[in-house]
Every structure is written in C-alpha cells, then in structure tokens.
Backbone:
C-alpha cells in the first residue's frame, strides 16, 4: 500500500508507474470529510486509466450534495458506469438511514457476493433501513431543490465565517489553528444550541484545528439566523 499526498494526481501517477504488481487499485474520497474539498476525479481517472488501475471512489459526502439530483461527484464528472471504476456510498448521511452499497460492474458485484468475508458473514440490513433509504433516494431525485439548498446554506455559512473559498459541498471548514481554541469554540456553540464538529490532530495537520460545519437542506430561515448569531459571537472570541 502506498499513501500519496493530498489531492496530488502526479504522486498517484508516479506510484502507479513504479509499482511492481500488475494490478492496482486507487482509493479516494469524492468529497473529503475534514475540509469538504472535491477530489480531482477526472484527472485521477485519467491517471488510473493510463496505468491500468481501477479507481474506487467513496461518495459518502458526495451523494445528495453533488451532481444532478444529488447523484454524486462521479456522475457529475460523467464517470458513472465505467467498467474500471467502483463507487461506494453510505446510506447514513444524506439518505438518513444506515448501511451502505457498492456500485460497480456486474463482475465486481458478483465477486464481492462470492468472496467478500465482511459481506458474507454480516447480517443483512433491516427492511426498515432499506425502505427508508429508498424513500429518501426517491425524494432526493424528485425534489432537486433540496440538493441546491444544501449548497446555498453552505455558501451562507462560509460567508458568515469568513471562509476564504466558497464551499463545494455540505462541509464548511472554519480553521482556528489551536486545538484548545477550536474545542472551546465548538463547546460554546453547543451550549447555545448549535452543534458543530471539531477536528484536531491527528485528524488534521498540526496548526489546522477547525470547526466543521455541515449544511442541511432542512435548515429553516430561523435556524440560519440563529446559527449566524451564535457563530458571530463565538468566532469573535475565538479569533482574538
């Protein structure tokens, strides 16, 4: 196994070119969970294709947020259905259920059913979980305004928090640097009724501790006003 630098397609190409094995599998998130950045999927797929590797993309944070009808970043990049690309999705984030799925060529699916021990010896999903995920998926496709609302709310959060780049996903990273400052800021938000994530080393590099805000389609205007009020006060103190 070789770990390459973050979003560095040239490093991936070099690792593939130098590998002694005939086969290779490249793994990446579609949307990175800590900072919400998008993977360079088109470039990565091109590198994998030219080096005879299969690309596996985890759409945990892309499904329901990116692409037409929330179909994910792979679909947005017109890569869905390729015979040398596999997608994993979770049913527990945008779809609000539990479990996950592997999307890929028939040969890959058949192999996993026959040979993947975690699948063979695991208990199947409860019918209620499957039914709720299917219902959420239909709702997401039938009401694309929900997908647009996620990104609109993320953009507003980013603007209020002074995030330099417009968010590309539901995740809005607010870098505070010091882990204690970030932890205290997250706790202060929670005490005022706003739950935010707090990422500290080793989840992020030293000096990059951050608040991780996650936008939702269901946030009302009143919710957003309250979040704005709380964040303004908390970040003013945290950035002194």
Residues:
């Amino acid at each position: 196994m070789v770990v390459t630098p973050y979003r560095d397609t040239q490093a991936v190409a070099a690792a593939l070119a130098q590998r002694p094995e005939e086969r290779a599998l490249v793994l990446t998130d579609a949307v990175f969970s800590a900072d919400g950045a998008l993977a360079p999927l088109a470039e990565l797929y091109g590198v994998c294709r030219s080096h005879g590797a299969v690309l596996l993309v985890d759409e945990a944070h892309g499904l329901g947020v990116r692409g037409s009808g929330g179909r994910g970043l792979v679909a947005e990049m017109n890569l869905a259905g390729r015979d040398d690309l596999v997608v994993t999705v979770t049913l527990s984030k945008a779809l609000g259920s539990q479990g996950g799925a592997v999307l890929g060529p028939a040969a890959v699916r058949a192999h996993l059913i026959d040979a993947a021990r975690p699948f063979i010896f695991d208990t199947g999903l409860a019918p209620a979980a499957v039914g709720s995920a299917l219902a959420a998926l239909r709702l997401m496709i039938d009401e694309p305004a929900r997908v647009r609302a996620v990104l609109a709310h993320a953009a507003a959060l980013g603007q209020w928090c002074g995030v330099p780049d417009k968010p590309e996903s539901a995740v809005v990273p607010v870098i505070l640097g010091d882990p204690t400052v970030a932890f205290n800021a997250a706790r202060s938000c929670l005490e005022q009724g706003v739950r935010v994530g707090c990422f500290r080393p080793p989840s992020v590099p030293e000096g990059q501790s951050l608040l991780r805000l996650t936008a939702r389609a269901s946030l009302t205007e009143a919710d957003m006003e309250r979040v704005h009020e709380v964040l303004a006060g908390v970040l003013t103190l945290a950035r002194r």
The two ends are 43 Å apart (CA to CA).
